[in-house]
Design brief:
The chain has 5 helices and 4 strands. By secondary structure, the protein is α+β, with helices and mostly antiparallel strands.
């Protein structure tokens, strides 16, 4: 009698482990027509490739909203700049036009901003000029 219950007890932890491994690993978001390698080539906005790809992101914003930071990084790569705010909020900034990091640019760059809430999920996605505190 005891031996017939033992295999069922062993299978339960194995099933639970397999379930949590697959359930905790969300699928990478896919933006139709978006080329991650091409986006990453425009790092810091030094190449004009990113500005051309912004409509793909803004038109498919719903696919990226509520994604964790790792999901955004899997699509857009590492951000050019990370800003930290109160209450564990964070913003990823991706330069769309040449920034000062390109060397010869003095213009205020346009950026794609992704704001994350305290839970680490994308809450807002928008593009605008970078706001600086310099006069």
């Amino acid at each position: 009698m005891v031996f017939s219950i033992l295999p069922k007890l062993i299978n339960l932890p194995v099933f639970a482990l397999v379930f949590f491994l697959f359930a905790c690993n969300p699928a990478k978001p896919v933006v139709p027509g978006f080329e991650t390698t091409r986006w990453e080539q425009g790092r810091n906005g030094c190449e004009p490739t990113r500005i051309e790809m912004v409509p793909l992101i803004t038109n498919n914003k719903s696919l990226l909203l509520a994604q964790p930071e790792s999901g955004i990084i899997s699509v857009l790569g590492k951000p050019d700049l990370i800003e930290l705010y109160k209450r564990n909020q964070k913003m990823f900034l991706y330069f769309l036009s040449p920034s000062q990091r390109c060397g010869d640019s003095l213009a205020i760059p346009e950026v794609l901003t992704i704001r994350f809430n305290a839970m680490g999920r994308a809450k807002e996605i928008y593009s605008s000029e970078l706001k600086t505190s310099q006069p």
